[in-house]
Inverse folding.
């Protein structure tokens, strides 16, 4: 048996073409039994070598086995009444593959030729009148770039562990008690909304509300319903009694 | 120094992506033609001088400059305005990474609000959103029904045209990108699994179809 | 076209780091000197032809190539060895056989889906397709209308530049299958046979029979 460097083969079709050439097999009359046997020997070798391409080779091996079994059965007939050769499809695939393999050699030739060419290397020093302002638009950005960027963002976003950060509150209850009482210096009654309107942070409103409850508990303010159901009225108390 | 090396020096400076030092030129020539080729930095400077005289005589649009103790090509000053026009045209078409990120998020999550974009990117995105709006790659698509009714953004026809897509659903799904971005390790594992599965079937069919196929090991 | 524009064209192409299209040259000239300057793509091609003749006559080391339907300067092939010695760019690996096979299929069958590529090659092509996308040699070109709407791929301008082609149709046509079948000699298979078959046997037989055992078949 020839020893073949398996990693030289791009895949099962490539290996089959090699057998066909080496053994001068007529591609129309592939001895499926023999070739299957040989193919399996190599598949076993690939498995031992643990090559990453093994899966594709095994898939082909099972195709060959399938053809082999069909060869033993009576031939199927196509619509023209002619016998269908179970190997026909494989032959077609082999030829088609060979066709593109040839073209990859053409490409390889173009690659070698182009590698002998060197483009101009340094463009930055060309005298240019500076473009007035830097504008941004699209160039050399593909759909793939777009999708890749999005995928990376998603990955970054999902990687972020939920962090429960304890932020120092920007306001204290004491401060807000002072704030509320300062408002009551010129009024005896105020709507709650009127003192929280304009507050940017939610936390400030919450703290103000707590400060208000504190003031009620201390007996310095009283609460009653407002005509607006979303609001209520605060009124000043003097040691628990209305001013 | 041999005549041939005038052209070699010309080619080397032409293709260098940074100012090419005389020592580098000598190194390349010695590397290819052997250490005994006689060539000095003075020879190289003379060759560059000669080349520049010829460019000037033949009225070509470029010249070799001496920069940072090396040589590099530059086009002549008098063409600067044309080059400036072209390069501004080109720079117009470059999208910054930030803009690309924002565009990707809008494309995939549209319609989407600025706060949502910002929470995905983790940075303020006012500037990039404005840029993309100006370039007509995204557009305002109404308002969200959530608190504060923030503005919703989506991509435009112009966006589709640029990327050669018929509709937004033509964008590759993150799953599809995942599939082609898999690293080799992962593929290998996948193949191993496939291998085991096929192997079993294979052995079975070998047993049943008999003959000599089983005697391969 | 005025004489001056020969030099402008020279400067513009010289200063471009990617194939410069005739339309871009015309746009720059119109942008600076006004829309009424008469200049056609034919004029530009003639100017490039003239420039190349002069470079050749004056035996300069570079020439203007027609690549990806644009113009790009490159050094002449004869200096490749010196340039290769210094260049880190070109010491980069060549494309793998798998990449070339996949590119050949995409180039001739574009736009094409990954399953189609895989069925032609007989191997999983995720990794190869990703490599080619990363190298910008192929690009996503929408979706097929078939079941599952798989992504379509096609080749890029970078593909043309990489292989030094002006357009896709500059590639030789693949042979017809009938023609391949008539091959008495599957040449390439023979080459492979010579290259990598029987190394061990060869060595063994050389050891045992000595002499001219080198004829392996």
């Amino acid at each position: 048996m020839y020893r073949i460097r398996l990693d030289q083969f791009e895949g099962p079709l490539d290996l089959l073409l090699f057998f066909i050439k080496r053994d001068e097999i007529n591609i129309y009359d592939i001895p499926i039994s023999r070739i299957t046997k040989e193919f399996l020997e190599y598949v076993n070798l690939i498995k031992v070598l643990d090559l990453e391409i093994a899966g594709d080779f095994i898939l082909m091996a099972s195709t060959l086995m399938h053809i082999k079994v069909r060869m033993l059965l009576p031939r199927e007939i196509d619509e023209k009444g002619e016998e269908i050769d179970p190997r026909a499809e494989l032959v077609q695939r082999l030829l088609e593959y060979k066709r593109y393999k040839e073209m990859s050699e053409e490409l390889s030739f173009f690659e070698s030729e182009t590698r002998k060419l060197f483009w101009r290397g340094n463009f930055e020093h060309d005298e240019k009148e500076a473009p007035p302002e830097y504008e941004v638009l699209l160039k050399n950005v593909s759909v793939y770039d777009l999708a890749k960027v999005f995928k990376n963002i998603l990955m970054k976003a999902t990687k972020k562990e939920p962090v429960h950060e304890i932020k120092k509150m920007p306001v204290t209850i004491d401060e807000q008690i002072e704030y509320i009482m300062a408002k009551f210096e010129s009024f005896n009654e105020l709507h709650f909304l009127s003192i929280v309107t304009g507050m940017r942070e939610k936390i400030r409103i919450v703290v103000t509300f707590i400060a208000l409850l504190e003031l009620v508990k201390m007996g310095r303010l009283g609460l009653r319903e407002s005509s607006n159901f979303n609001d209520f009225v605060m009124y000043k108390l003097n040691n628990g009694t209305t001013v | 120094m041999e005549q041939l090396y005038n052209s070699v020096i010309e080619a080397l400076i032409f293709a260098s992506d940074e100012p090419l030092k005389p020592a580098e030129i000598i190194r390349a020539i010695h590397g290819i033609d052997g250490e005994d080729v006689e060539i000095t930095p003075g020879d190289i400077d003379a060759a560059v001088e000669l080349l520049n005289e010829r460019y000037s005589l033949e009225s070509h649009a470029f010249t070799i400059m001496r920069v940072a103790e090396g040589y590099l090509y530059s086009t002549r000053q008098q063409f600067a305005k044309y080059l400036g026009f072209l390069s501004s045209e080109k720079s117009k078409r470059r999208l910054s990474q930030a803009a690309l990120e924002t565009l990707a998020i809008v494309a995939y999550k549209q319609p989407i609000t600025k706060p949502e974009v910002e929470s995905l990117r983790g940075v303020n995105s006012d500037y990039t959103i404005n840029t993309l709006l100006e370039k007509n790659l995204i557009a305002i698509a109404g308002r969200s029904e959530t608190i504060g009714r923030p503005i919703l953004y989506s991509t435009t026809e112009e966006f589709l045209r640029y990327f050669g897509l018929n509709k937004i659903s033509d964008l590759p799904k993150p799953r599809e990108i995942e599939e082609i971005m898999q690293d080799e390790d992962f593929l290998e594992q996948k193949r191993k699994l496939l291998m085991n599965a096929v192997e079993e079937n294979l052995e079975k069919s070998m047993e049943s179809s008999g003959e000599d196929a089983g005697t391969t090991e």
